[in-house]
Write a structure and sequence with these properties.
By secondary structure, the protein is of the alpha+beta class. The protein has a domain of 63 residues. It is 28% helix and 43% strand. The protein has a 4-stranded antiparallel sheet with strand order 2-5-4-3, with no helix packed on it. It is rod-shaped and about 135 Å long. The chain starts with 8 loop residues before the first helix and ends in a 5-residue tail after the last helix.
Length: 169
């Protein structure tokens, strides 16, 4: 028999993956924990009392009438009147300023919460337990599968050893 390996490199990779899957993927029982994340959104309405600033625009207004002179002024505007040529020239001018006004603003707050709840699988009441024959068949399958794998490993030990890069004695 020559030293050439009659199992190709792609076949080696597939064989290793299949054997690893068979040996690691078979388990009878695994504890299962289900993690459930609950998301909750809460909306809160509230009133905020604040102060707004209002800028009064500058307005200029003039009128001409037959009358005597006058001068008016308040916190928002001032007025001057002058008699010229038998006519009263009157001007009204607003005073530039900023006024503070109290306001109430309705605000809606959005609050996001995530709660992590851990649940385990609940016990289910079985109507009828398995018979001894059903239990035997379930267990026998795993023993049979293990035996077949051992026989395959013994039968193909030389190609497997070469494939895995190990030397035979």
């Amino acid at each position: 028999m020559d030293n050439k390996s009659y199992i190709g490199t792609p076949v080696r990779g597939v064989l290793v993956v299949v054997l690893f899957s068979l040996l690691s993927g078979c388990s009878l029982l695994r504890p299962r924990v289900i993690t459930k994340i609950e998301k909750e959104v809460e909306y809160r309405d509230r009133e905020v009392h604040d102060t707004a600033t209002v800028e009064i625009p500058i307005e200029v207004e003039r009128i001409v009438t037959r009358d005597t002179s006058s001068h008016l002024e308040n916190s928002f505007a001032k007025s001057d009147a002058v008699v010229s040529g038998g006519y009263l020239h009157h001007s009204l001018e607003s005073i530039p300023q900023i006024i503070r006004v109290p306001v109430v603003v309705h605000v809606t707050d959005t609050i996001y919460r995530e709660k992590e709840a851990v649940e385990t699988i609940k016990e289910v009441k079985v109507e009828k337990p398995l018979s001894w024959w059903q239990k035997f068949r379930i267990r026998a399958f795993w023993w049979l599968l293990g035996g077949v794998l051992v026989l395959l490993a013994i039968t193909f030990r030389k190609p497997l050893m070469r494939c895995l890069g190990l030397r035979l004695r």
